[in-house]
Design brief:
3 copies of one chain form a homotrimer. By secondary structure, the first copy, chain A, is an all-alpha fold. The first copy, chain A, has a single domain, classed as NCX, central ion-binding region (A middle domain of Talin 1), CATH 1.20.1420. Chain A has 13 helices and 2 strands; from the N terminus they run ααααβααααααααβα. Chain A has a two-stranded antiparallel ribbon with strand order 1-2. In chain A, helix 4 crosses helix 9. Chains in contact: A-B, A-C, B-C. Chains A and C meet through helix 5 and helix 6 of A and helix 12 and helix 13 of C.
Chain lengths: 352, 352, 352
């Protein structure tokens, strides 16, 4: 019964949002419809991810989720690069990284922690994620430090080389975590014995199909939603930095948000951390460098130099996420701390 | 016999310092008397804390000690805010944070380490303290980074919001550490079997009364002592930054200093770390934000923007204290390192 | 047979390089001869170190190796200080620190990790090394932060005091690690049972003599090699910062490089980490301060203020090396990450 109602609203809200978008209805109505649709599509995505994770193991499920979640962002960002909106792209990359590490991880750890006193996950995975995140921070900070001494051409060259190096590093990370050291990085989180009762009886193939379908739906709705934002920006007088780093990032990551929280509340904190941190890493080590390289083929090269505010936000998020995840155990207060820092950064970006 | 002599000097030095202060005696004499009185009052406070900790557990004892110790500082700082001495207040907040994390922690670990080869304490507590300290550093650094782009009014608003958030975070930390996760954060330090022989036979009520009495005495003496400092500043030509960050902070924290060292040398390093780090956290997360809010009611709002030198000192102290405490084990060399960094910072502040 | 060939080339290449140097042959030929000679001399040094480590324990062997390796650098740097080339000295100090922490450690961990899935070493040692490295970073950053507010004389005084403090800290570290806590810091790396079959049958005295002999040879060849660099700098238009921080540092540390890699591939990662991190620490805590003090006796005092680029590189290397070594276990991907960051820094320094 409940299930039927869920799928009815999912399909109805998706079709209505699409109709509203293409028929050019009132923007406020479009915005409300898209918000409802994205919540249900993300819920659907969470279920599909859980089902795939059931077959593939929590980490592979988390990786799939992060990848599908970021596919939508990558497509949106490529359109922004095409239009030469480099600052907006960088702001949304920043927002996506800190949104995942502070908001998604914070909500998952906080809500999971309210239900379970202490939640555990693989320490070695946490330690590697931290080192990778440090690499991303270093790769973004080095060009900014040297920016003043460089000519435009030298900076362009450094950006391209760093981008290529990051993509290679990300590829080798997949080789390392999925092939050579798969076993060492596997999950240790306690499985809920009731778990199987809740599991939907989807086959392996059906689960994967539903995951892809959910991702496509989220991508469409996200784009429609982003389209309505410009209207809101003008009406409420928000800065582009705030819109890029907070609104676009929060909506673009809605799927990861609800999927991670959903898993954390089922005591699968390992998968939730993998979605949150893994998604940040993918944005920093794969999405951002790909955009730098793609921009060269579009005739208007984008460099990899972020502003001081963006770098400070990324570095703070990385250091805090690392401090909290490095013992492989989480509780509600640690989630609260992550959320607090997100709010402080949000207020600062809003006031700038 | 020994006990009697101790209490005689305690009372005598307290009364003499008070008389010297209110009768306006020679400042150098006042200074010497106050120094003697503060040493004995702090010793008394250490005994009372140990007795309360005996009944309440080491952590609660450490928390009580930190709280009573900082009450004195908070009162002194409110008087400074009233007089509009915002820079002096911020310097003394900085000094109190680095004094506790480098000098108090350093002395405790060093002297405790000379007696015991390795001293252990609860790793989970250390990890949480580190994350909280990071929050404090972030909360102090973010306003400073954005300070240039902000108007006076925006900075005032950000300061107030950050102050309220920090007080909420500190309140929830007490809820977390004293209620929901009390057991997980409890101490593991080996108890000295001889311990009970040394314990004073004070009842629970008497112990608490003596702790309050000792705190009140320390607060009075500290204020008298601070009063004599201006004279010394002029005579020896010291900068206000150095006086605020080093002299006021060292004297204002004399109680924590001796209590923590006293406990460390009895192998209760867990309580010593709790006093040192807990006191830093309380200053950063409670005393500083309360002063920002209180300043609004006094008509001369103080913002939360610290100077580069102060932020660098706080960040360095937090990173080093974290690096040394994160394994839950300490030795004399780690204490020495903390002291060395305190000395280097002290020389730099002195020369500025 | 193989052994004989090795020693023949070792001696021949050493004699030929020397002849080429003193007879003033073609610089390119000198350069090639010195490169061959340094590879063989370093190989000889690795063998001697392994043999001494067999008698003295891995850590003492690593310490000896680091010390002999840096003796050569110290001598070269003193000649540079005498000639007033302060910037070149600081660049080579920077290069030596990051070269050891990123290149030597990275290569050891990477190549060792290709052969052994996970390599373990003493966690307490790693934690202490990290804290010491933090002290070094703090000691180098504090003077740079305060540099603007200081007069030339004040900066000179701060540099001298910091230099003396660092030398004392390094002396106490030797006391701590070799005397008071020797046992706690001992190695846990699994010993290869085949190990003894490979061991050369050198006596204790012979091993020590060969280690000293190898060090002297490396020192001579390094100096001849550095002499040919100026020619190359002019021919290829390289900046002095790049030459000091990368070329001189790589060649000056060739011995540590090959010795550490040699040990890592024999699964003695504990000794390899000790060489890499220990050598960085020695440069930062002993070589650099000694040069500051020595410069006073040469009439042209060198201060301890490094450029922003150098400090950023040192801080990044320290944070990354710490993040990767703090769990006491390494694998090929961690080695790869260290190498990647070294390459990114190298490109940035090259383009500056």
């Amino acid at each position: 019964m409940k299930q039927k109602l869920f799928y009815t609203i999912l399909i109805a809200s998706f079709l209505l949002s699409g109709t509203a978008h293409y028929s050019g209805l009132n923007t406020t109505l479009q915005f409300v419809l898209c918000c409802i649709a994205v919540i249900f599509a993300a819920g659907f995505m969470g279920k599909a991810t859980e089902s795939v994770a059931h077959y593939a193991g929590e980490r592979m499920g988390g990786f799939l989720n992060a990848t599908f979640g970021n596919a939508a962002e990558l497509i949106i960002a490529i359109f922004l690069v095409r239009d030469g909106l480099h600052d907006m792209v960088k702001a949304s990359i920043t927002g996506s990284i800190i949104g995942n590490m502070l908001l998604v991880l914070g909500l998952s750890v906080f809500l999971g922690g309210l239900k379970y006193k202490v939640q555990n996950f693989n320490v070695m995975l946490a330690s590697h994620n931290a080192s990778l995140m440090l690499l991303a921070v270093v790769a973004l900070i080095v060009p900014a430090i040297f920016a003043k001494s460089f000519t435009f051409k030298e900076m362009d060259m450094l950006s391209t080389i760093v981008a290529v190096i990051l993509i290679i590093a990300y590829g080798l990370w997949l080789l390392f975590s999925m092939v050579t050291h798969k076993k060492e990085l596997s999950d240790v989180s306690a499985r809920d014995p009731e778990d199987h009762a809740h599991t939907l009886n989807w086959s392996k193939g059906k689960s994967i199909f539903y995951l892809v379908l959910a991702t496509v739906m989220v991508a469409f709705i996200s784009e429609w939603l982003v389209g309505t934002l410009e209207h809101f920006t003008e009406t409420f007088g928000l800065s582009e930095l705030f819109v890029g780093a907070f609104l676009i990032a929060i909506i673009g990551n809605a799927a990861e948000h609800s999927a991670a929280v959903f898993l954390a509340m089922k005591n699968k904190i390992g998968a939730a951390v993998e979605i949150a941190i893994g998604s940040s890493l993918q944005v920093a080590l794969f999405v951002a460098p790909v955009l730098v390289i793609v921009s060269h083929f579009m005739g208007d090269p984008m460099n990899i130099v972020f502003t001081l505010y963006e770098l400070a936000a990324i570095a703070i998020a990385a250091v805090l996420a690392r401090s909290i995840s490095q013992d492989g155990a989480t509780n509600w207060y640690e989630g609260f701390l992550l959320l607090v820092v997100y709010v402080i950064l949000g207020i600062a970006f809003f006031l700038v």
